[in-house]
Amino acid sequence: MQVTRETFDQVMVPNYSPAKMVPVRGLGSRVWDQAGNEFIDFAGGIAVNALGHCHPELVAALTEQGQKLWHLSNVFTNEPALRLAKKLTDHTFAERVYFANSGAEANEAALKLARRYALEKFGEQKQKIIAFTQGFHGRTFFTVTVGGQPAYSDGFGPKPGAVEHCDYNDLAAFESLISDDTCAVMMEPLQGEGGIISPDPAFVKGVRELCNKHNALLIFDEVQSGVGRTGHLYAYMGLEVVPDILTTAKSLGGGFPIGAMLTTTEIAQHLKPGTHGSTYGGNPLACAVAERTFDIVNDPAVLAGVKQKEQLFRDTLATINNKHHVFSEIRGKGMLLGCALNEDFSGQSRLFLDASTQQQLMCLVAGANVVRFAPSLVIPDEDIAEGLTRFERAVASVVAAR
């Protein structure tokens, strides 16, 4: 059957507006469309393809497991899930793992666990959840309500209650909001969709201290920032703050759908049998691929390489900006970077994305004012150089069209 981009408009629900070209093949940081055009991938499937496309070791892990077991249900456990959980607990603060299919599902589990923990330990009055404006935690009704972007949560009727928001990096506002009725605080240790906003170290430490004071659980949403993305295995490791619950997905599977919630033994015991579940969560296929991804990423040389590649991006972007004067700053950490547009180009990030696609570069936006890059953690330096050459052509075309 021959399908084209026009087929999308005929058969798909119109909640997405995909590019005109249709990718059909990928290898490393390169992608080819139906017409055979080659693109460099700085989008990484929105920070998912941590090792690029069709990494041979991930293909081997998937192929090997695909000839053994695909699905069992959680009536049984399986070896890949147990091995992955052991590695996650060995290399993080956590002692217990719950597997899901996505970041939204992992966050849903974290929020339900926090509410359950508070109810059973402190009583029904302790149910308030605090999150941050411009946060993003998924598209389930609970997680989209906790995320601080009304554009994503409005228009679907009454929202889950007892959820409040304050500005990121505003410790005074947060302190005025938290109380003994707060059961949990959910935050990204580096805001992604909200504009690639890094936390002030004093802010993060202050949030941790206030959570301790009020017996509130601190949940770090590391769906986008985790698994090597910032040059640390998890971003919290570079902040000197340890959460009570951590969620991870995206890069964890290297492109195969998987999510996980990590926490301590004490907190985990409140999700007793029957209180939460997932049909596909922890399936052998996903866990086998994720285990291999985790092994490759959790290597000092790979993590150091992420920081080196960040500097290459920053140096070249500075050169581009000195010539074209379009960015106010380069934000982010590791292979999660945002080019914040200056006042002359305010609200026009989509123009830069479309121009990049025209130059055969795949990138992202993070709101109307930030162009986002989230490439493979092991993208070759020559692909960075060539991709940024294409990006400069895109920038020049936007500037010239003003």
From TrEMBL:
Full protein name: Acetylornithine aminotransferase
Residue stretches in coiled coil: none
Subunit structure: Homodimer.
Underlying gene: argD
Catalytic activity: N(2)-acetyl-L-ornithine + 2-oxoglutarate = N-acetyl-L-glutamate 5-semialdehyde + L-glutamate
Organism: Alteromonas lipolytica
PROSITE patterns reported for this sequence: AA_TRANSFER_CLASS_3
Family indicated by similarity: Belongs to the class-III pyridoxal-phosphate-dependent aminotransferase family. ArgD subfamily.
GO cellular component: cytoplasm
Domain of life: Bacteria
The EC number(s) this enzyme carries: 2.6.1.11
Amino acids binding N(2)-acetyl-L-ornithine: 139, 278
Pathway as given in its UniProt record: Amino-acid biosynthesis; L-arginine biosynthesis; N(2)-acetyl-L-ornithine from L-glutamate: step 4/4
Gene Ontology MF term list: identical protein binding; N2-acetyl-L-ornithine:2-oxoglutarate 5-aminotransferase activity; pyridoxal phosphate binding
